[in-house]
Known about the structure:
26% strand
Amino acid sequence: MLAFLKFSFISLSLFLFCSDLFASNQIAVVLFTKGKVFANKTKTLRVGDRISETDTISTGAKSSCEIQIIQDNSPVVIRLKDNAEFSLNSASGGKNKQITGYLKSGKALFNVGKGGNNLKIVSPTSVAGVRGTKFMVDAIGVGLDRTATFEGEVNTRARVAELESLENDVLKQNKALDNLVKTLEKRQYPVKQGSYVDMSAVANRELLDKTGISEALTDDKKAALSKKEFQERIAKFGAKGIETSLQSVDKEATEKHLEVFEELIPVDLQHLEDDKKFTKVLDDRNSSRSFMLLINQLRRDLREAKKLNAYYEEKLNHMDTSIVKERKEHTTNIQKLDTTINALQKQVQESKTFSENDKQIQKEILEHLKSLKEIEESLKEITKGTR
């Protein structure tokens, strides 16, 4: 009997240990999926599923996924677009954990709350370090990675995977090579709001070729890197690291992306372990997300109506008074709709639960969408006389 109790106690301890280990390995939760979304290419992911550090998320064509990191002090919501491959892991680093995301391919949007842990995003040719910002990383797939910032600031540097594979003893034997690695790590490009930077595999290859590193690695002659001629080449061509330049994102594109980030709504994780309560939290979140999608559609339609209205403004001003009056009425209606959209957005954001007023909000949005379509059709009818 004593042996049986001892065996039972050991079994229970092992079970609890494994359960704690499994729980601690969880790093994110799935908030939303569309189309084909998998973990490790075989398991279909659904809303509420947990993501562990051993999982690689992949999305199919015309598919997307939204996840929230759960090992962080502030909300981090990530949207993976179609044909993306992404994984996460964490490591202790001082007071806070270092969360690292690996984007192997595709495009990802990151809505990072302020005051949280360090977040680092690694793609084939770049590394981005962030705190409290809204940004996008696009592993375009032609040897080019783009990092664009729409709010806050992202520090981005070039990543040369071939150098990451070098052992420490190789670096110790070659001071010039060690300096090159450190130079690449220190050469940060601050990508501020409304700008982007491209990191190219072509630039990486040029650096490796000019320094002779690619030759040494290809021939598996890493010892040759310590020779004087290699050190001189590395010191000469690797002194500046990899240079690139910041580019601007136009104002309209920045505004459109910021609207999309409003759809990346974080959830309160306090009920994460209570399946019933957390399911309700996710349902409310995705109800809010649906409203933001409708509001953003309304905004897009409104922008088109404004453009159409402005395009014909001067022509219509020279036509008869009745048409001018009708055009002014359309302008007034568009301005009212602009105000209404902002009010609806505020109503959605301030609501804690959407079961009480979701039908009314949805009805209002659909009515405004219909009104915009009527305005556009009316403008088209008016402008027929200008052709």
